Amino acid sequence: MREERRGHRSTVLLAAMAVVFTLALVIYPKVGYEAGMQGLKVCWEIIIPSLLPFFIVSELLLGLGVVRGFGVLLEPLMQPLFSVPGVGAFALSMGLAAGYPMDAVITARFRQTKQCTRIEGERLLAFTNTADPLFMFGAVAVGMFKSPALGALFAVAHYISSFLVGVTFKLWGRRDPDHLREVKDREEVRPKGNLFARAYREMLVAREEDGRAFGKLLGNAVSESVQTILMISGFIVFFAVVIEILEVSGIMAVIGWPLMEIYRLFGIHTGLVQPTLAGVLELDIGSAQTAAVPAPLIQKLALVSGIIAWSGLSVHAQVASVLTQTDIRMRPYFLARFLHAALAALLTVLLYGMGVGRSSQGAMASLAHHLPVMSSAFEQNGFWPTFAHAMSNSVVWWAAIFAALVALSFGALLIRRIRVIAFFVRSHG
């Protein structure tokens, strides 16, 4: 009975919001039209050219069985770190390349084809929902802040915090009975033997299970990808209009009053209230508005980093639409986005205080400058003086930290394997 009443209240609230929004479009037709055209321009010039090829390629790789073979190879890495199957690395890599909601599209396909459990799908969405590097380096750092060096700051904070979220969500749903049963069934039918031979066999099996001729597979990939990209474009246009209507009607100012008091209490520039609310709804608009506010730079950087990690309700709605054909829940996704936003903002403040992003030159240019001269410097000055000089550059320093994290991950995996072998020898000795 309580759930039914709650559903009735939600229906009434949503209906009221829809009516109010419709009336607002009637009252402000020009504003709605211009905002819609701006959203369509973003979709036509950025979203469709950048995402559509990735969608088509991912569908082809799934149908050809490449993803399942790829997952077998990366199972020893993804399982100990994040407690997800090896195919999760494909969702992670495609999310890094194309940005959100690419990860949600691939994760939904994994769940539909039974390549992951519901819990594993929720874990995947927790840390694969990332922005692509081109957006952070190009659109945000160069386009909004006019500083290429800030791209490294945003990227390092974004991806390290995403990694931390993934490690944290490793424990999510670990005692769920359905998850444990599905994992057990999967382990029982998993083939044994050489890793590369297993990957090859699994790729062939996945291709046979799909069964579609390549022409039909390509046609389905294009049609399904176009349908997905139209859905994403529709959400972008809708939220662009919503934000503009809220600002023109003054509703945004009313909603932002409590947040303004909180910002005053903690000494945060009150001009960031409006961009914060816009960023909650749509990350591109919120980031652009934040960069234009005459507030302290460190506050703007932290807010933009948090907005990128949060990714906006527009992206959340896109993810929810993609997941409607699966049993993956949105609640863990929301929790992960809150955690990701908080960690990204905190890391941005810490990294900027340590010098990342302050260089007048771009981070990648600085790194490219240092790498070619390393070998000659080693010959002239010796290893340790050259190493100390290289580490004095913040970009090289954080690149070394990232490499160390990767090395530690592989080291932990190796130690785990050695312990398993030692236990097996003792038990059969």
From TrEMBL:
Regions crossing the membrane: 12-31, 51-74, 81-100, 149-172, 235-257, 301-323, 335-354, 395-415
Keyword Transmembrane helix tagged: yes
Keywords from the named record: Membrane, Transmembrane, Transmembrane helix
Signal peptide range in chain numbering: none
Keyword Transmembrane: yes
InterPro entries hit by this protein: Spore_IM_YlbJ (IPR014226)
Highest taxon in the source lineage: Bacteria
Matches recorded under NCBIfam families: spore_ylbJ
Protein name: Sporulation integral membrane protein YlbJ
Organism for this UniProt entry: Alicyclobacillus mali
Taxonomic path: Bacteria, Bacillati, Bacillota, Bacilli, Bacillales
Gene (name only): ylbJ
